[in-house]
Write a structure and sequence with these properties.
Blueprint: H1 8-11, H2 17-24, H3 28-31, H4 34-56, H5 58-76, H6 83-96, H7 102-110, H8 117-124, H9 126-146, H10 148-159, H11 162-169, E1 184-185, H12 188-192, H13 195-224, H14 229-254, H15 259-278, H16 285-311, H17 316-345, H18 349-369, H19 374-379, E2 381-382
Helix pairs in contact: 4-5, 4-6, 4-17, 5-6, 5-10, 5-11, 7-8, 7-17, 8-14, 8-16, 9-10, 9-14, 13-14, 13-15, 13-17, 13-18, 14-16, 15-16, 15-18, 16-17, 17-18
Length: 383
């Protein structure tokens, strides 16, 4: 996961903002559409890949996705001065490389774990965190020395490392459930009729919007507030480290606590971190980054755990893809919202304050969704 579309490719996007601006004259608002194009590709491709994994197994789909993703990222390095060509290649990377993301690997875990499912999800989700810790600093060095094109090609080459790992360690087929895993699950048509589905999905959308806006603009924001670009990149790595800790800790906790109450706590932690950024002082940078990173990392465990916990594992790949739609729509719109508000006001304060409000509302929706969960156990069907 750390070498795929949601790992190195996404976590290092901020490194390329200034080099692309200087090379082609594109504005930050134009480049803020990067997550939007990527999310559009993910949203279209994920249900297809999820369904293919349900039918053909995780390994076959993963191997094809890794190779095609690397080819698309290589093409990214040949983009010229057209912003629309940039948008098109980012869309292609996401649509054709969606199988390098979390849906396939989460499906493999859900199929085989129950008692420690949260911890297992936390372990596999640390890949993108490791990419966030080391990726920005490494890519910054490469871009400074060799240029942005070489940096992009490095991401493509790194993606190919996952090919032998996927071949030898992923099962060729879904050989069945772990011992004791329930065979009860929702069908897609039933999920769409459930208010719980829409409320939970909306909360994921708000979390994605609130967190992605900061993640994409973190390096430019810190640079504007007196930090050198090198120090700003170091804070981006620290965000990844906090995310790493959050994924492991939250994965461990989800096996032992009330799922939705703990999820609401993650939203409040994100809200607190964003509020610190909204009233930013240099001495608050460390605390703000740690809070946002912990919450951001925990959400990667919380979402697939909720899908498996409340809807079962039948057609998990397709079901998780639809929930991921909500989160991806938020991830796409968050950087645009922050970029627009920053452009209108000349500062990031109001943008991050708005993001904090979105996180707070999302936490309230999670708590409200808890009132609807008893209906789930009475309407679920055999897988």
């Amino acid at each position: 996961m750390g070498l795929g579309i949601g790992g190195l490719f996404l976590s290092t996007a901020g490194v390329f903002i200034d080099p692309l601006t200087h090379a082609f004259g594109w504005s930050r608002v134009q480049l803020s559409a990067w997550p939007l194009c990527m999310t559009a590709g993910l949203m279209l491709g994920m249900p297809i890949v999820g369904r293919l994994a349900d039918v053909f197994g995780v390994r076959s789909v993963s191997l094809v996705s890794i190779f095609v993703f690397a080819a698309c990222v290589t093409g990214f390095g040949f983009v010229g001065g057209s912003i629309w060509a940039l948008y098109a290649v980012i869309f292609a990377c996401a649509f054709l490389g969606v199988g390098t993301g979390g849906v396939l690997y989460s499906k493999a875990v859900v199929s085989r774990f129950r008692a420690r499912r949260g911890l297992a999800l936390g372990v596999i989700a640390t890949g993108p965190s490791v990419a966030t810790i080391f990726g920005p600093k490494l890519l910054q060095l490469i871009v400074d020395d060799e240029g942005w094109r070489f940096g992009i090609w490095f991401i493509a080459w790194a993606a190919l490392i996952a090919l032998p790992l996927a071949y030898f360690f992923l099962p060729p087929r879904d050989t069945g459930l772990a011992q004791g895993v329930s065979l009860r699950a929702y069908r897609l048509a039933e999920v769409a009729r459930s208010p719980f589905f829409w409320i939970l999905g909306t909360s994921f959308f708000l979390f994605g919007m609130a967190s992605a806006g900061l993640g994409f603009h973190l390096i430019p924001f810190l640079s504007e507030n007196g930090l050198t670009r090198s120090h700003a990149v170091e804070y981006a790595g620290l965000l990844g480290l906090a995310s790493f800790v959050g994924r492991m800790a939250v994965g461990f906790a989800l096996d032992r606590v009330s799922v939705l109450k703990f999820g609401a706590l993650l939203f409040l932690v994100l809200c607190a971190g964003l509020m610190l950024f909204a009233g930013f002082r240099a001495q608050w940078a460390l605390s703000a980054v740690l809070l946002v990173g912990l919450a951001y990392g925990g959400e990667f465990d919380f979402m697939p755990y909720c899908v498996a916990h409340f809807f079962g594992r039948k057609s998990f790949g397709a079901l998780y893809a639809y929930f991921y739609w909500f989160a991806s729509a938020g991830v796409a719109s968050g950087p645009l919202l922050v970029g627009y508000v920053r452009g209108a006001t000349g500062a990031y304060d109001s943008a991050f304050g708005l993001s904090a409000g979105l996180a707070f509302v999302g936490g309230g929706l999670i708590l409200f969704a808890q009132r609807l969960t008893p209906a789930l156990s009475t309407t679920s069907v055999d897988a």
